[in-house]
């Protein structure tokens, strides 16, 4: 079930169907060679979430395209924001999900460069 596809009058029903579980697919926008799209990490994270939701239904939040990419920030198409802003944004999104009734939030990371950041986020 994709958050952005819901109609507002079906939202309460979605909480029941999903048991209040929401997955945020995390990735980044960066170069993945000359043959892959900039959004490869977010595509992978979102696809894994979509496949898993076929086994056990949960809400899938629109992907989060910000990852730790400072080392490739000079490459065309890369979107790099500070880790402080990322922390604040991710925290705010989780707070909004909770406010909307989703109390079980899972972060599905598709970008290896964000692992340390996410460990810090959870501490």
List the helices and strands and how they pair.
Layout: H1 11-18, E1 21-26, H2 40-53, E2 59-60, H3 83-99, E3 104-109, H4 115-122
Parallel strand pairs: 1-2, 1-3
Strand content: 5-15%
Parts with pLDDT < 50 across at least 5 consecutive residues: none
**Fraction of residues in H or I helices:** 25-40%
Give the biggest sheet: 3 strands, parallel
The pLDDT mean sits at 91
Which term fits the overall shape?
globular
H/E series, N to C? HEHEHEH
Structural class: alpha/beta
Reading side by side through the largest sheet, how are the strands ordered? 2-1-3
Overall number of strands: 3
For the record, give the distance between the C-alpha atoms at the N and C termini, rounded to a whole number. Answer: 29 Å
Number of helices: 4
Oligomerization:
single chain
Gyration radius from CA atoms, angstroms: 15 Å
Q: What is this entry, summarized?
A:
The chain has 123 residues and is an alpha/beta fold. It is built from four helices and three strands.
